[in-house]
């Protein structure tokens, strides 16, 4: 009887732990799917209704998290809880910032109440009195024209406010068009009454949006002449962003870290330049390397060869487990000339997307593309994009703890690929001076990214100054530098994305030193474990690998780099 009691007690304990384990993982999945459902239900993202509904959901979920007994969770579930709590707080913080920005300009749509009602009621298929709705659209059209007239002498203080107002009008236009198409052609009465009022209103809203986008004070400058218009977020938002990524440094400290790394790159670049006979004029050495580009049509074969070289180097030294399918399933395709204006270099994952000129590009564009994607530069970019970089990452993410995908962070994604650039350098992967210059070019580029992107978001550098900095300090081709800056600020990347390469790489290198150099893990064990924990902030990864005790309110504190 006593034995059975112990068995029952043991089973109950196991069930309790299992329930908690399921609870956190299920909450992560539910949080992801709930938000996706709300996005589909409320597509007009720049509206009071959208912000109100999402904030209510976020606040409700944050309250629910407080009811979880953190101490009763198993170790893995505690980590997942910390990640989820951080994600919810991060999403809520930036949602409130966006709402505050919307509230500043919401008056530009104070005539649009009936339009929001139309969009909402369409979701449940309400049948409208089409003649009444046509009059409503006509009335709103007139009201919009009146509103524009009243705003003529009231420009926005900043171009950012003007851009937000324009975006709000466009968001409304998209919602109206979607709702209109739901009925048009299916309801004869609707089509007969609504075709002209809807077309007229759409034209008016389009003109109104264009007017608002340019309607700001003359002392507020959106375009510095580069043609690149991004949205600097300011110091407070940068610091909050860093905290949610578990980075305990200020923007100024991160710039100091980048400058220190730059100094190392400068020293190594001079050594490689001297080895090629150019002395201290490393830009002449860089010019020689740029001229080593392959002929048009030969780039894919060159990329394939570099991919094989990297895999062989890794396997010969038993540095990481590379699944057979990962080696088998990667592919390549060519990048369009249009896409190369935003991404002048390779992109990667299961497919490596190759930047190289086509017959439709100008002579200048062709030369810059070939020079910027020469074999020695590509020595670092191919393994960055494929194996052991992004392709291997993505392959493992889909197979190990895939529910953590929601916590995606560039400090893990780009940090891992950059870490391998540093690790392979230390292991002698770049044997010739030309290869070393190629790899150093990219390492200098990562340092420059920290400096110019943070300076831009602190409003201390303009896009044109960022372009010039890449050309003069790193040695970029001008068109490639321009594309890089455009990608950084208008390509849909978060404000910390460009700093994540070097900073994430330094984090992983510091963690490896802590675990591998002390003999707690082999290098291969370390690399395999990093990939199997999926895409999470590196400081949280450190909690897992070091088994450091933590609580539900864990905040960033790991000072992984020296700062002078």
From TrEMBL:
The keyword Signal applies. Transmembrane segments: none annotated. Keywords: Signal. It holds the Pfam family DUF885. Residues 1-21 form the signal peptide. PANTHER family: DUF885 DOMAIN-CONTAINING PROTEIN, GLR0591 PROTEIN. This is DUF885 domain-containing protein. It comes from Pseudochryseolinea flava.
């Amino acid at each position: 009887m006593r034995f059975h009691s112990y068995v029952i007690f043991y089973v109950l304990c196991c069930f309790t732990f299992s329930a908690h384990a399921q609870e956190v993982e299920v909450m992560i999945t539910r949080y992801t799917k709930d938000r996706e459902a709300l996005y589909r239900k409320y597509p007009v993202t720049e509206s009071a209704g959208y912000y109100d509904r999402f904030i209510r959901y976020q606040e409700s979920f944050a309250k629910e998290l407080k009811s979880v007994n953190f101490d009763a969770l198993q170790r893995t579930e505690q980590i997942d809880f910390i990640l989820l709590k951080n994600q919810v707080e991060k999403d809520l913080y930036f949602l409130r910032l966006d709402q505050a920005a919307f509230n500043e300009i919401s008056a530009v749509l104070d005539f649009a109440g009936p339009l929001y009602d139309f969009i909402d009621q369409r979701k449940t298929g309400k049948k409208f009195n089409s003649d009444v709705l046509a009059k409503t659209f006509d009335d709103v059209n007139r009201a919009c024209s009146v509103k524009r007239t009243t705003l003529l002498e009231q420009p926005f203080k900043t171009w950012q406010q003007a851009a937000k107002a324009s975006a709000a009008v466009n968001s409304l236009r998209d919602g109206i068009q979607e709702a209109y198409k739901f009925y048009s052609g299916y309801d004869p009465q609707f089509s007969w009454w609504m075709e002209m009022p809807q077309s007229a209103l759409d034209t008016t809203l389009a003109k109104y949006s264009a007017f608002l986008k340019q309607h700001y004070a003359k002392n507020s400058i959106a375009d510095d002449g580069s043609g690149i218009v991004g949205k600097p977020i300011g110091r407070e938002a940068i610091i909050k962003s860093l905290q949610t990524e578990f980075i305990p440094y200020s923007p100024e400290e991160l710039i100091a870290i980048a400058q220190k790394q730059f100094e190392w790159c400068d020293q190594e670049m001079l050594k490689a330049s001297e080895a090629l006979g150019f002395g201290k004029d490393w830009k002449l050495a860089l010019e020689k390397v740029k001229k080593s580009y392959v002929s048009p049509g030969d780039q894919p074969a060159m990329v394939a060869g570099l991919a094989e070289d990297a895999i062989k180097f890794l396997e010969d030294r038993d540095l990481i487990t590379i699944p057979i399918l990962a080696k088998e399933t990667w592919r390549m395709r060519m990048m369009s000339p249009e896409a190369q204006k935003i991404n002048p270099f390779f992109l990667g994952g299961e497919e490596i997307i190759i930047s190289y000129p086509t017959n439709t590009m100008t002579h200048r564009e062709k030369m810059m593309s070939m020079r910027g994607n020469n074999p020695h530069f590509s020595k670092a970019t191919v393994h960055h994009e494929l194996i052991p970089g992004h392709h291997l990452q993505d392959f493992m993410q889909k197979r190990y703890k895939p529910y953590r995908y929601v916590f995606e962070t560039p400090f893990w994604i780009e940090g891992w690929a950059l870490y391998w650039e540093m690790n392979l350098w230390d292991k002698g992967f770049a044997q010739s001076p030309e290869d070393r210059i190629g790899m150093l070019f990219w390492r200098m580029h990562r340092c420059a990214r920290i400096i110019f992107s943070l300076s831009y978001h602190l409003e201390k550098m303009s896009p044109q100054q960022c372009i010039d900095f890449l050309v003069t300090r790193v040695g970029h081709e001008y068109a490639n530098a321009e594309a890089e800056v455009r990608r950084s600020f208008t390509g849909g990347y978060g404000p910390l994305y460009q700093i994540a390469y070097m900073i994430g790489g330094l984090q992983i290198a510091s963690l490896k030193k802590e675990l591998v150099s002390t003999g707690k893990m082999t290098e291969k064990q370390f690399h395999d474990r990093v990939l199997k924990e999926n895409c999470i902030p590196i400081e949280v990864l450190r909690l897992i690998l070091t088994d450091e005790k933590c609580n539900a309110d864990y905040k960033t504190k790991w000072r992984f780099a020296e700062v002078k």
